[in-house]
Amino acid sequence: MRVMVTGGAGFIGSHLIDRLVSRGDEVTVVDNLSSGVFDFIRKHVDDGSIIFHNIDLKNLSDLKPLMHEIDMVYHLAANADIRLGTKITDTDLNEGTIVTYNVLEAMRLAGVSKIAFSSSSVVYGEGAPMPTPETHGPCIPISLYGASKQGGEGLIGSWVGTFGFQAWVFRFANIIGRRGTHGVIFDFIHKLKSDPNRLEVLGNGLQEKSYMEVGDCVDAILHVIESTNQPFNLYNLGSNDTCSVRRIAEIVIEETGCKGASIEYTGGDRGWAGDIPKARLSIDRLKQLGFSVKYESEDAVAYTTRALIKEIMGE
Amino acid sequence: MRVMVTGGAGFIGSHLIDRLVSRGDEVTVVDNLSSGVFDFIRKHVDDGSIIFHNIDLKNLSDLKPLMHEIDMVYHLAANADIRLGTKITDTDLNEGTIVTYNVLEAMRLAGVSKIAFSSSSVVYGEGAPMPTPETHGPCIPISLYGASKQGGEGLIGSWVGTFGFQAWVFRFANIIGRRGTHGVIFDFIHKLKSDPNRLEVLGNGLQEKSYMEVGDCVDAILHVIESTNQPFNLYNLGSNDTCSVRRIAEIVIEETGCKGASIEYTGGDRGWAGDIPKARLSIDRLKQLGFSVKYESEDAVAYTTRALIKEIMGE
Hints:
The structure is a homodimer of 315-residue chains.
Chain A: E1 2-6, H1 11-22, E2 26-30, H2 42-46, E3 50-53, H3 60-63, E4 72-75, H4 91-110, E5 114-120, H5 144-163, E6 166-172, E7 174-176, H6 184-194, E8 198-201, E9 208-209, E10 211-213, H7 214-227, E11 232-237, E12 243-244, H8 245-256, E13 262-265, E14 278-279, H9 284-288, H10 297-313
Parallel strand pairs in A: 1-2, 1-4, 2-3, 4-5, 5-6, 6-11, 7-10, 8-13, 9-14
Antiparallel strand pairs in A: 9-12
């Protein structure tokens, strides 16, 4: 199969590419390296198993010629910094919604009609019942990142309904693991690296979310696509439980060996405006396809912490 | 109250302005007259009761200076031609999603935080239970217009959650009435005007949707805003029943006096790719606020047909 992965040099994209290459797909990677890291995919480029294009998806004309001879697109490219939306309001619009439009339009023009998309649990907004099923409504995202993911879902739905596309849309819990480039564990390790005696935690630490290890995430993506064949296939991806920010702080302090570090909470029920304090997805749909995760939330956090300590402290 | 109405020279906008002016609001109208009609608001401009700006909302810099001294924005501007998305794919993105971003951003920069937004029943997509409640999920629009409305809803939600805005979002059924500039009744009258012996109907005529008279619609908007005060207020607006396209064709033929006209169906279950054949909204939330519509669907169709015949045949 000839596939394109947008954002393929990113955290999740690079893990997906490992899987696609190992199963023999022909992979074209598109990434502007704004948050992606070329080293994550270097070995595949060097041994000729993938083709890499450093282009910006905001330019439709750059994307169009690359779409020929492609059977399916995994569209993962996005701004990954959710908090940024509180300060700069057009990043998620441009790099999320509009880029998704460009991907869909380039596909339509080239006759490519299968797309997988990384949406997010944050489309559910605040106050959804937990665990939240895919059928929850109304979805009112409270972050600009969430709005861009919902905007992308809607665009994809409309390309399915209007132009006969087939889509797999995944609403991700917090995905963590090796090569993580952002998120709470990444932040905590960096903070302790610069000051081993003190760990500042945004909010009161009672935020509690579901974490999924990135290997489980990409396995789930491929499992769902192989197991389903509706025009529009929507699946939550996550684990079966949650882990609190307070517990994550304890784990990171323990694993870094910064035993004397004091935890200092900035207070309030959330990390920033637009953060959702508590989130847990129902993954019943995923499980009904015969998939089970290897890591539940706390194990995924512990595993990720050890992996990122090596990557960050080894710098 | 000092309000701005975007798309104020349009069909629904101009009716809303009639109400706002009559209750004494200071009204600023923004419209690029792409589908809006200056004559709809001319009398208010001439007598000085509203201020009109012919600007394009796609240019944020044109909008910014107009947002000062505004208390609330009624954001109705949008591409009104749903079918256009099947041919030109960026109109709804540019004139829907991106314009909504511009409106929100101009408001944020000027410190304006109250917005009412005309969303649509088409955000529910196909296959929703009927009557469809606001809590239905997932919402997977199948038209590009629907995607732009969902994108707008998400942006508004995120401005509420991130920047403390207050919003009223209305998911409209098919709104019809005097000054209609598009839609099935408008199309049928124009077709019979050019050929009184033959009426072509897109689809098999069994499409069946809920219709709301525009006076009921703007009364409902103002009633909901006066009666609610949550940060994000979401309401379906429609009537209690439906009317089939076949029945509309009969009514238009009868009212135009084209009794001999043959009805010719193009076939298929829908008018065009992305059309939703059957739609009926639950308006229980609206009714719980003590509002009731004056016209049910068929009465609204008959009333509108007579009004539009005068407007179109009188040209």
